[in-house]
Amino acid sequence: QVQVVESGGGLVQPGGSLRLTCAASGSILSIYDMGWYRQIPGKQRELVASITNYGQTNYADAVKGRFTISRDNDKKMLYLQMNSLKPDDTAVYYCNADVSISSRSYPRVYWGQGTQVTVSS
Fold first, then answer.
1. pLDDT tens, position by position, for the chain (121 residues)?
2. Residues linked to residue 94 through DSSP beta bridges, in sequence order
3. Residue 10 to residues 68, 70, 89, 91: CA-CA distances in angstroms?
């Protein structure tokens, strides 16, 4: 079994910062791409940022220059540093990880349960 758990969400004022953390654990052979997504009620889940196991990053236009994604492969951790937060960043943030548990099976994507980020004065 593989578990993906996010933490670090909360309430922050506009212009403030938060750091989200995602921990992957369980019977993991390798982790490939990892990413952060967000979703608000009534809308589709959208990509915020992603990172390959080699460190290549990709960001949604709405967060470029404000958010930074990073990972620690040894610790199986993913991070999202969010600066200059805006009310439009309010959402549930989800982590996902493309995980291989065996050399005899294809990788699959695992999702966390989400962490709420609220940006409000």
1. 899 999 999 999 999 999 999 999 999 999 999 999 999 999 999 999 999 999 999 999 999 999 999 999 999 999 999 999 999 999 999 999 999 998 888 899 999 999 999 999 9
2. 37
3. 18, 20, 12, 10
Contact 47, 60 (CB under 8 A): yes
User: Smallest Cα–Cα separation from 73: which of 119, 9, 30?
Assistant: 30
Q: Which two tokens stand for residue 84?
A: 């200059």
Which of 118, 117, 100, 102 lies closest to 36, judged by CA? 117
CA distance 67 to 48: 9
